[in-house]
Amino acid sequence: MPKAPITPDSVIELLTSEHILEPQEPIAPDTDLFTLGLDSMAMMQLLLQIEERFRLSVSPAEMTRDRFATAGALASFLGEKRRLAA
Amino acid sequence: MPTFPATTVDFFLAGLESFMVRSGQGTHWAVTALWLAGKPDAAALNQAWEQVHARHPMLGARLRRKWRGWRLVWETDGPVSAPPISWHALSGEADETALIRERLRGLTFGQAIMTPLHLEVFADTTTGKHLVLLTWRHALMDGTGVNLLLEKLAAPSDASPPPVPEPPQESPALLYKRARPLMNRLHAMTRAGCLSAWAQGMPQAGGEPEFHLIQLSAEQSSRAVEKLRRLCGEFFQMPFYAAVATRALRRLHESHGWTSPEIHLHLPTQVRNRSRDLVFGNHMGTLPLFLQSNALDTLDAAVAHVQQCYKDALKQGLPQASEALMALACRMPVRWFIPMVRLQNRGQICSLFHSHTGAFLPGRTDFAGAALENVCTIPSVSSPPGLGLFFSDYAGKITVAAAWRSGGLHSEELRVLTASIFADLAG
């Protein structure tokens, strides 16, 4: 199965389609995800979805505030992780 | 009479308190202690205290059943007036432990506390430091709620009135379907004969609330945070503290000569999408995890194991099942819910594990104008389980409150528990 592309939009789609975040307004690539309610349980759900959709395993120790602050930052981190794994 | 819909977690706490009262354990009180470097601004504290009471009629509410739809509601008589804040002077030898212990029993200087919130300020006449004790009814608020309340008490604000909570909407059939994974889990726990499961014939300690604070120094806390970051990153504090608590519990079991392949752990979790203005709406749920005893031999292994079990529970939809089960239980009379509370709380010493993790009052360095040195919450616990471990973090200082019922934990057992927690956090 081809790997799903990792872009800010695909991260936003994952966050909303899996009900990890349910914001009133659309999420932009630079929207602060923590202000939208990205708590620890949502983070764990996000980890599971990242494994399933992007075939990437992120350890909790790799999860820093900077990497998960916005959809754009998360897409960059995951993209780099995939590139290094290739 | 004005009413507010009760949330599902309100119902769990109401059931828990009802269980405690009916089994002679009294009201479910908790105390939050704040250590201040100087004197708080009395006028600002009074203003914030009065604002909270004026904006939250829940503080005068009673949990009632509506005949129409058999719904649980909080019934109020409108805004309540704030009880006076008491100020006391203490000598240098005052026993903070005795003060907190008395308040966990719902008393202040021998008098029963008659309001759901009771605020006292104790001035140390020799050092100028102040201790603030907020005594609160746990049926009305949980560990997250008290943090939100402290934010409101720390300084008066122009916040708008709290939102009205959403009552459960789904049909019982749908709720039952969604609750099924958790029900299967609870039945599996019974079949597994978990060590912490209370069994017929085991003694139950139902005495007065007791507690012990394990206060880590700044250096010890720094070592603990370093371990936490290495094992769990910046976000997952809960698996780290849960692993520490579970290993301490296992040590306690071993000191009794008990062995079991599994340990039953209730991991506290945040209910999703609940407004931060809903201070008295209760924000926590629990996620039952079954930990393999042999996966807890080292802290690193235990943290990884808790994380994996947490992931598995999410894959199985247990948080949603937990919320659905509570919503289903809302339709039962509270007394019917008590057997479920007993089941959830199974454990002679400790199966129900609560951890108020995360920093208290993040970003705030003062409370009512006085520098805040530390803060922690000490809840009374019911028996069963009879023992709770509560982790607090303020400004890089970790405090662990062990709470139990008198007769449920002896001094040697407390020593074993404390040593295990110290070794895991700061060793």
Report on this structure.
- The complex is a heterodimer of chains A (86) and B (427).
- Chain A has 86 residues and is mainly α.
- Chain A has one domain (8-85): Non-ribosomal Peptide Synthetase Peptidyl Carrier Protein, Chain A (Orthogonal Bundle).
- Chain A contains 4 helices and no strands.
- Chain A has helices at residues 8-17, 40-54, 65-68, 71-85.
- The mean pLDDT of chain A is 88.
- In chain B, helix 1 packs across helix 10 (334-344).
- Chain B starts with a strand and ends with a helix.
- A 6-stranded mixed beta sheet of chain B has the order 5-8-9-2-14-13. In chain B, strands 1-4-3 form a 3-stranded antiparallel beta sheet, with no helix packed on it.
- The longest helix of chain B has 21 residues, at 172-192.
- Chain B has 11 helices and 16 strands.
- Chain B has helices spanning 8-22, 42-55, 96-104, 143-154, 172-192, 218-232, 237-255, 299-315, 318-329, 334-344, 411-426; strands spanning 3-5, 29-36, 62-65, 72-75, 86-90, 107-108, 111-112, 117-124, 130-137, 209-215, 262-270, 284-292, 366-367, 370-379, 387-394, 397-405.
- Classes of the chains: A mainly alpha (86), B alpha+beta (427).
- At the A-B interface, helix 2 of A face helix 6, helix 7 and helix 8 of B.
What is the total number of structural domains of chain B? 2
Can you name the CATH architecture of the largest domain in chain B? Answer: 2-Layer Sandwich
Q: Which secondary-structure class do the elements of chain A indicate?
A: mainly alpha
Shape estimate of chain A: globular
Which chain pair has the greatest contact? A-B, 19 and 21 residues
In short:
The complex is a heterodimer of chains A (86) and B (427). In chain A, 51% of the residues lie in helices and 0% in strands. With 86 residues, chain A is an all-alpha fold.
Note the main attributes of this structure:
heterodimer, A: about 90 residues, mainly alpha, Non-ribosomal Peptide Synthetase Peptidyl Carrier Protein, Chain A, 4 helices, about 50% helix, globular, B: about 425 residues, alpha+beta, Chloramphenicol Acetyltransferase, 2 domains, six-stranded mixed beta sheet, three-stranded antiparallel beta sheet, 11 helices, about 40% helix
